[in-house]
Design a protein that fits this description.
The chain has eleven helices and twelve strands. It has about 325 residues and is an alpha/beta fold. Helix 3 packs parallel to helix 4.
């Protein structure tokens, strides 16, 4: 990687993907500043030599301060939840926060922006793999997370066309791997399967990618990506049954054998959401999750491979690294 030297601001660096991006930049000798809320959990930054700028996407003056003297901006931060009782804060962070930050980046004269979108904004191909040209619209977006990311990407695209924002868009698929502290919805699926808490599964499929490969794709996009283009940063398309079998093999347990029909998954999700509203704890299964699972979320990263030199490792390695980190961090006691 030969990204020209310069100070980079990384948002979301206390989280899963953002910390991997910050780590990758430090690894090539770049100066890194990270945006972090004053009360944020900073354990993912513990061994990294980075400058911390306290602030938030809702605080415009803090963004101006954080962007000062920066050459690059990696906007990775997002509210990534598949179930919320009130979607307003999610849209405020993902959509309005992105708008405020991108305008501040324009005012600061940032040379290159890499905006982290999601494959959630793309269409799907029945019995095939979607690419960056697969059509979609906001009506296709299931749940507030997908809608908010779709609208945020539209904000970035609008500023690229109207104000020449020097942005490249990357669309990670389903990252897994180390430092998934919260964990993310996919990390939680792997963790619960590793604990033996998933006796059954629905018939669906995901594109699994190592989080460190996604981070490498961000750096490649900053160096080689074309302004205004988007690049899928994915890995390997796998049926959910195969993903769970890989998890089971990694921890030495039997994989789930029961395929749950959607007619049973829907009432289970309704019950789980009702309990969640009473307990305040996020449900493991949600109605939006079941709706999304009805289609296999398969994608191709051929464009990123061709233009960015993107080369992800096998999904098995990503799953093994995720489980290894969960074990070492005490999640699997």
């Amino acid at each position: 990687m030969s990204l020209s030297p310069g100070l980079s601001l990384v948002t979301g660096a206390t989280g899963f993907v953002g910390s991997a991006v910050a780590r990758a930049l430090v690894g090539i000798g770049h100066d890194v500043r990270v945006l972090a809320r004053p009360n944020s959990d900073r354990r993912n930054l513990g061994d990294l030599s980075v400058e911390v700028a306290e602030g938030s996407l809702e605080d415009a003056p803090s963004l101006v301060r954080a962007l000062a003297d920066c050459r690059y901006l990696f906007h990775v931060a997002a509210d990534y939840r598949l179930w919320v009782t009130d979607p307003t804060p999610m849209f405020r962070t993902n959509v309005e926060g992105t708008r405020i930050l991108m305008r501040a980046a324009l005012d600061a004269g940032i040379e290159r922006v890499v905006y982290t979108s999601s494959v959630a904004t793309l269409g799907l191909v029945p019995q095939g793999s979607a690419d960056e040209q697969t059509p979609s619209n906001v009506e296709d977006m299931i749940g507030p997370y997908k809608r908010s990311k779709y609208q945020a990407e539209e904000v970035v695209r609008g500023l690229i066309s109207r104000r020449a924002l020097p942005a490249v868009i990357v669309n990670p698929s389903t990252p897994v791997g180390p430092r998934d502290r919260r964990p993310t919805p996919t990390g939680r699926l792997i963790l619960e399967a590793a604990r033996g808490h998933m006796p059954g599964y629905v018939e669906t499929g995901l594109n699994i990618v190592h989080v460190d490969d996604v981070a490498a794709g961000h750096l490649a996009a900053a160096e080689l990506g074309r302004v205004g283009e988007c690049y899928i940063l994915g890995g390997e398309n796998l049926p959910l049954a195969k993903i769970l079998a890989e998890v089971a093999q990694a921890v030495g347990i039997r994989p789930p054998r029961i395929r749950v029909p959607y007619s049973m998954a829907y009432p289970a999700a309704i019950g789980a959401e009702l309990i969640a509203r009473l307990s305040g704890k996020e449900p493991f299964i949600t109605l939006d999750g079941v709706r999304m699972a009805r289609k296999k979320m398969y994608f191709t990263s051929e464009k990123a491979s061709r233009e960015l030199g993107y080369a992800p490792r096998p999904a098995r390695n990503a799953i093994a690294d995720a489980i290894g980190w969960f074990k070492a961090s005490g999640y699997l006691r």
